[in-house]
């Protein structure tokens, strides 16, 4: 009887922890999606890119893990090695997401203002590097960000800019990164791939819709050309 009561107590404790965790996520989400200020400058555009890259990364990654783990979700975070795997995945997916959205927002601004490919490349590079300059080097990436800066430089040098502002064209790398880095068994990923990618597609669709409501392309380009 005592053992049964103890087991029930543990289960209730775990259920309570999970409930508190998801309530806190919901409250953070409500705060995040409250009315945002307009995007009128390059600084505003970099802030938008950073916050949305983090949002898309964390909600899709944690959502996928929660779906696969079920009631064991909170227990996984008590496992030091698995928690470390989650943190590694979070950073790697975020960096690809930041690359995607830096390219996308630059293509949108540049396309609306007849900007040259060089102007859009330089704007995207500025946004990407500016965000990373304000990030502390995480312990999960002791090598820092030099490798991703080089990859981004290569990316903007080969980007077809007039295609990047169309739909989800700019976001294919982050869809693949979510599947690649999520700490889920490979045999399960093979079954989940399209569903998982669709979860990221939905987040980026919301981001694109938000940008269309907040962005003043002329003011941002004017601000950029002052540089």
Overview of this protein structure:
This protein is mostly helical. The protein has 2 domains: 1-34; 39-226, no CATH class. The chain is 79% helix and 0% strand. The chain has helices at residues 2-32, 42-69, 73-76, 80-112, 117-133, 146-158, 161-164, 172-181, 186-214, 217-226. Helix 2 packs antiparallel against helix 9 and helix 4 (80-112) runs antiparallel to helix 5. It is globular, with a radius of gyration of 20 Å. The termini are far apart. The mean pLDDT is 87.
What is the secondary structure topology, with strand pairs?
Elements: H1 2-32, H2 42-69, H3 73-76, H4 80-112, H5 117-133, H6 146-158, H7 161-164, H8 172-181, H9 186-214, H10 217-226
What is the string of helix and strand elements?
HHHHHHHHHH
Largest β-sheet summary: none
Q: Oligomerization state of this entry?
A: single chain
Distance between the termini: 74 Å
By DSSP, the count of extended strands is 0
Number of domains: 2
Integer average pLDDT: 87
Poorly predicted parts: none
Instruction: Supply the helix-strand structural class.
Output: mainly alpha
- What percent strand? under 5%
Helical content (DSSP H or I, runs of 4+)? over 70%
What does the overall shape look like?
A: globular
**What Rg is obtained from the alpha carbons, in whole angstroms?**
20 Å
Q: Given the structure, what is the number of helices?
A: 10
